[in-house]
Write a structure and sequence with these properties.
Elements: H1 3-14, E1 30-31, H2 44-59, H3 63-66, H4 72-80, E2 91-93, H5 97-112, E3 118-122, H6 127-140, E4 143-147, H7 152-155, E5 160-166, H8 178-187, E6 191-195, E7 214-217, E8 232-235, H9 279-288, H10 297-318, E9 325-326, E10 338-342, H11 346-355, E11 358-359, E12 361-363, E13 367-371, H12 379-394
Parallel strand pairs: 1-11, 3-4, 3-5, 5-6, 6-7
Antiparallel strand pairs: 2-8, 7-8, 9-10, 10-13, 12-13
Helix pairs in contact: 1-12, 2-9, 4-9, 5-6, 10-12
C-alpha cells in the first residue's frame, strides 16, 4: 500500500462523518459529481412509494390536508433553513432555480426604489443566471452591467438597484466573500441577491448573520433532493412585506381559495409561491433532507476542506508535472467543495475516468470538475480518484 493510500485509510478511520455513507445508495464507483446531482438517500424510494400509492392512490385529494401537501413548501423551507443559516419562516420551496432568480431579481429592483436603474451581475455566473438577469433588466427598464465579483465594490453607485452574485463559482469552485460583498452592496443602498446552488449543504452560509436580502438555490446538488427537485427562495423577514413578486399566483394569495380577481399577497415567505407545487418531487426532497438529522454543517465544512486538501496533494503526487493545473484557490477561505483542474484534453480524460469508475464532469473547454460531498465521499475515494487520474493522463 502506498503512503497516500495508507494515510487515506487512517483518515477514514478517524472520520466522524464516515457512517453517513450508509444512508445513501452507492456502489464501487468513486462518485465525485454530487455538485451536479447528489446521490440517492437509501430511504427515499420507500417514502416516495408511500406518497404515490397511499397519499395519491388512496387518499387522493384529501392529501392536500391530511398528508400536509398544502403546507409542504414552507415546511420543507424550514428544514433547509438551518443548512443556510436562516431562522424559520423565511424560505419557501418550489419552482426552479431560474424562476426563483427571476422572482428575486425583479422584486429586488422594485424594492430598491426610484432612481436606481442598474443591475450588477457576476460576469462569470452560470449562464442561466445571466440570461435571467438580462431579461429582468429589460422588464424593469434597468441597465445590466456584468462585473467580476472582485470589482463589485468599485462598480456600485447610487444607480445600483440589485446585485446578483454566486456564492461559489460553478467552474472553478472559488468561494466568494458573502459577508463583505453583502455589506458593500448595502452600503451603496442596493439589494443583495445570492445564488447558493454550489454552497448550500457544503459549507456554512450565514444568511441571517450577514443580513443577506434575498437568496435562491437548488436542492439536487449537495442537498441530494433528486433530479429536478424544486429550488428555494429566501426572503429576509423584515423585507417580506415589501417583496413584490413579478409572478403572483393563487398559491401566494392571502386567500388562495377565495378566487378573487384582485391579487392580495399573503404575508411571510408564502409570497414567494406561485402555482400548484410539484408534490412528488417536493416530498422526495423532504425525505432526502432526513440524512441531515444530527449533522453539523460546520463538521461537513471541516471534512470538505480536508477532502479537497488531500485530493490536491494526491493529484500533485500522482500526475506528471505540468499535465494538469488546479484553478481552484488553495486558500480555504476562497474554496468551495469542489476542485477544478485545467487539462487540455479534459473532455476525453473525463470519459476515460468514468470508464474506470471515477465520475466527475467536464466543463468546456478544458476543465475537469470534481465535487466532494462530505456526507458520502471518503478519503480512500479521493486517493483512488487521484491515482486513476494520474494513470489516465500519463497514458
Amino acid at each position: 500500500m502506498s503512503e497516500l493510500a495508507s494515510r487515506a485509510s487512517e483518515l477514514d478511520a478517524a472520520d466522524e462523518l464516515a457512517g453517513l455513507r450508509e444512508r445513501f445508495v452507492l456502489d464501487d464507483v468513486v462518485y465525485l459529481d454530487g455538485n451536479s446531482l447528489g446521490a440517492l438517500p437509501a430511504h427515499v424510494p420507500g417514502r416516495v412509494e408511500d406518497v404515490v400509492r397511499r397519499q395519491w392512490g388512496e387518499l387522493r385529494i384529501r392529501s392536500w390536508d391530511e398528508s400536509g401537501w398544502w403546507t409542504a413548501p414552507e415546511r420543507i423551507g424550514d428544514r433547509i433553513a438551518p443548512l443556510v443559516g436562516a431562522a424559520a419562516g423565511q424560505i419557501v420551496v418550489g419552482d426552479s432555480t431560474s424562476v426563483n432568480v427571476f422572482k428575486a431579481l425583479v422584486a429586488a429592483v422594485r424594492m430598491a426604489g426610484e432612481g436606481r436603474d442598474e443591475i450588477l451581475v457576476d460576469a462569470t455566473t452560470f449562464p442561466t443566471d445571466g440570461y435571467i438577469a438580462e431579461s429582468a433588466a429589460r422588464m424593469t427598464g434597468c441597465t445590466l452591467r456584468p462585473v467580476a465579483p472582485a470589482e463589485v465594490g468599485p462598480a456600485l453607485s447610487g444607480r445600483t438597484a440589485a446585485v446578483l452574485l454566486n456564492h461559489v463559482d460553478y467552474r472553478t469552485g472559488r468561494l466568494y466573500d458573502l459577508p463583505a460583498l453583502t455589506a458593500a452592496v448595502h452600503a451603496a443602498g442596493a439589494i443583495a441577491v445570492w445564488d447558493l446552488c454550489h454552497s448550500a449543504g457544503a459549507l456554512p452560509v450565514g444568511l441571517d448573520e450577514h443580513g443577506v436580502d434575498l437568496a435562491v438555490g437548488c436542492t439536487y446538488k449537495y442537498l441530494n433532493g433528486g433530479p429536478g427537485s424544486p429550488a428555494y427562495l429566501y426572503v429576509r423577514r423584515d423585507l417580506q412585506d415589501r417583496f413584490d413578486s413579478p409572478l403572483p399566483g393563487w398559491n401566494s394569495h392571502e386567500e388562495p381559495f377565495g378566487m378573487r380577481p384582485g391579487y392580495e399577497p399573503a404575508s411571510g415567505a408564502v409570497r414567494g409561491r406561485v402555482g400548484t407545487p410539484d408534490i412528488l418531487s417536493m416530498l422526495a426532497l423532504e425525505a432526502a433532507l432526513d440524512v441531515w438529522d444530527g449533522v453539523s454543517v460546520e463538521a461537513v465544512r471541516a471534512k470538505s476542506l480536508a477532502l479537497t486538501d488531500f485530493f490536491l496533494e494526491c493529484v500533485a503526487a500522482y500526475t506528471p508535472a505540468g499535465r494538469v493545473e488546479s484553478v481552484t484557490p488553495a486558500a480555504h477561505a476562497e474554496r468551495g467543495s469542489q476542485v477544478a483542474l485545467r487539462c487540455h484534453d479534459a473532455g476525453d480524460v473525463m470519459k476515460r475516468l468514468i470508464e474506470r469508475g471515477v465520475v466527475g464532469d467536464f466543463r468546456h473547454p478544458d476543465i475537469l470538475r470534481f465535487g466532494f460531498t462530505p456526507l458520502y465521499v471518503g478519503f480512500a475515494d479521493v486517493e483512488r480518484a487521484a491515482r486513476v487520474l494520474g494513470e489516465t493522463v500519463a497514458g
